[in-house]
Design a protein that fits this description.
Blueprint (H helix, E strand, L loop, with lengths): L1 E6 L10 H10 L2 E7 L3 H13 L3 E5 L13 H4 L6 E8 L7 H17 L4 E6 L2 H8 L7 E3 L6 H9 L3 E4 L2 H4 L3 H9 L5 E3 L21 H12 L3 H16 L2
Parallel strand pairs: 1-2, 2-3, 3-4, 4-5, 5-6, 6-7, 7-8
């Protein structure tokens, strides 16, 4: 059994039939999914969507790109059945929101997570120099670095702080030798599997809309490059997800 720890199939513009997507996920052995909010509205939709479907859970948070539009509602949404806060963080690649706004939003939402004893799904892109000092101002954070693509050094820093790392389709199609080596080095006990559907479709389904069923392809890829059985990857990553998110 597998868990897709990060998808956006609850969004109103998700282009596939939800009923069909859920059936294909179950057929592929993906038995639980976490729908992750990226704005106040998206987070509210994730909570509603999770309440309407078995084996689906909601994470609430405002993505750094959208922090300029507000994040105050996350404090209340976190109390409405959410199992995590996220995806939250810093993204300096595009700077869709000013950096000072991103930082203030991240600090506020981390505090919301801690106040509600919830783990955090972090999105950090080209911003680790600011992220780590901010992270270290808090105590007791549990969480995962979603869609990690950064350096081995930042991976090691994440592990030193007890974080998990979210691995998705990027690991199956990256041509960067350093990234390939980094992904292969992630220990199973620190790995979570995710799709980020509808984005980042893994090999061999490149060119199609991503969906939770495809997390099985990520699992197969990591079993192959490690020379181990798929069941071993599934068991470890499912244990990690159930432990972190208290499913």
């Amino acid at each position: 059994m597998l868990i897709d720890t990060h998808c956006h199939i609850h969004e109103s513009d998700y282009p596939l039939s939800v009923a069909d997507v859920l059936q294909r996920a179950h057929d592929a052995g993906v038995w639980r999914m976490i729908c992750v909010g990226t704005s106040e509205q998206s987070s509210a939709d994730a909570v509603r969507f999770a309440s309407e479907h078995d084996h689906i859970f909601a994470s609430v948070g405002v993505h750094p790109h959208d922090t300029k539009d507000g994040y105050a509602q996350i404090t209340e949404l976190a109390k409405q059945g959410a199992i995590a806060v996220g995806e939250i963080g810093l993204d300096y690649y595009y700077n869709h929101s000013p950096r000072d706004v991103q930082i203030a939003a991240l600090e506020s939402q981390i505090q919301t997570a801690l106040d509600n004893n919830l783990p955090i799904i972090f999105h950090v892109r080209e911003a680790f120099d600011d992220f780590w000092p901010l992270f270290d101002n808090f105590q007791g954070i549990r969480g995962v670095l979603h869609s990690f693509t950064d350096t081995q050094d930042n991976l090691d820093q994440a592990f030193a702080r007890g974080l998990y790392v979210g691995i998705n389709g990027i690991s199956t199609f990256t041509k960067d030798p350093a990234q390939q080596k980094m992904y292969a080095s992630v220990p199973l006990e620190r790995m979570l599997l995710e799709t980020d559907a509808p984005f980042l479709t893994p090999t061999p389904y490149r060119g199609t809309i991503n969906e939770p069923a495809f997390v099985s392809e990520v699992a197969k890829f990591h079993a192959k490059i490690r020379g181990i059985q798929l069941d071993e990857v599934a068991a470890a990553t499912t244990t990690n997800a159930t432990t972190l998110f208290r499913l």
